[in-house]
Design goal:
The protein contains 8 helices and 13 strands. It starts with a helix and ends with a strand. A hairpin with a 2-residue loop joins strand 10 and strand 11. The chain has 2 domains: 56 residues; 201 residues, no CATH class. The protein is an alpha+beta fold.
């Protein structure tokens, strides 16, 4: 069987399975529709599951993960954090939290700029451009796709570009009142079929000094990579000091000619 036929068969079987699961879930919801206490029960069950998750020991597979020694594993998996992500679908984008914009909604959110435009027109305020790839956007008048791998973009010749995590809207929406501990990870945009175009810089290229990064004007000395994300490390380790406002101003600059970096998410614990 050819690869194309195999993927078609596998995709169709998965689609049938998902439709069966959805049908069962809708049937269960319909049976419970007349029960006024059902939403409260769902919330109660969710709280109970959350409390259980926060109390039980981490599984062995998690304990065995190669996480830097100066990062608390419980913080990594259970600690409060802010995920400053360009990817869609994300509530923070649809509600205008990421962009601090009045443009909200599933289809009327702030979409950023097209990659070709961003390459030659960096934002005048020195920020990292929020960018989408035009070839991934559909032209159908009725949206049928919500999942897009958007990213923050810094190109050669743009100078230092920065963003602050968390922004005011993220603090208001997701803040717990507790200060963030200063563990920072960045996730680079995923390349289709794991084949990145020429000039696309990732963690290994930062190590080669083709690009640089700073946090609150302190140089990032190393990136400790786990899967597609990398923990930022300074001269003393993986813990970063916040500025006087409790925030982290993250800056990047590309040194290599005809190159750029694309970062999908910044996560701060």
């Amino acid at each position: 069987m050819s690869c194309r036929k195999w993927h078609a068969l596998y995709g169709n079987l998965m689609a049938v399975w998902l439709m069966n699961v959805l049908e069962d879930a809708l049937g269960e919801l319909a049976n419970q529709a007349s029960d006024a206490s059902f939403p409260d029960k769902i919330r109660s069950d969710e709280r109970a599951e959350y409390d259980t998750f926060m109390k039980v020991d981490l599984p062995k597979t998690v304990r065995d993960m190669e996480i830097p020694n100066d990062i608390d594993r419980n913080l990594f998996f259970r600690g409060s954090n802010i995920c400053h992500t360009a990817r869609l679908p994300a509530q923070s984008r649809h509600l205008g939290i990421l962009t601090e914009s009045s443009m909200i909604g599933e289809d009327s959110y702030e979409k950023g700029v097209e990659e070709g435009h961003a390459r030659h027109h960096p934002p005048e305020d020195g920020s990292m451009a929020l960018v989408y790839a035009a070839n991934e956007r559909e032209t159908c008048p009725v949206p049928i796709k919500k999942d897009y791998k958007d990213f923050f973009y810094v190109g050669h010749g743009h100078g230092w570009r920065q963003l602050t995590v968390p922004n005011d809207s993220e603090v208001k929406a997701y803040g717990t009142g507790e200060p963030l501990r200063g563990v920072i990870a960045i996730c680079f945009a995923i390349c289709n079929w794991n084949k990145c175009p020429k000039g696309n810089l990732r963690a290994e290229h930062f190590h080669e000094m083709k690009a640089s990064m700073r946090v609150n004007n302190v140089t990032v000395r190393q990136m400790t990579t786990i899967d597609n994300c990398s923990f930022l490390k300074n001269a003393d380790g993986h813990i970063w000091k916040p500025n006087k406002d409790g925030r982290f101003e993250i800056s990047a600059k590309v040194h290599e000619s005809k190159s750029y970096t694309r970062i999908s998410s910044f996560v701060v614990w």
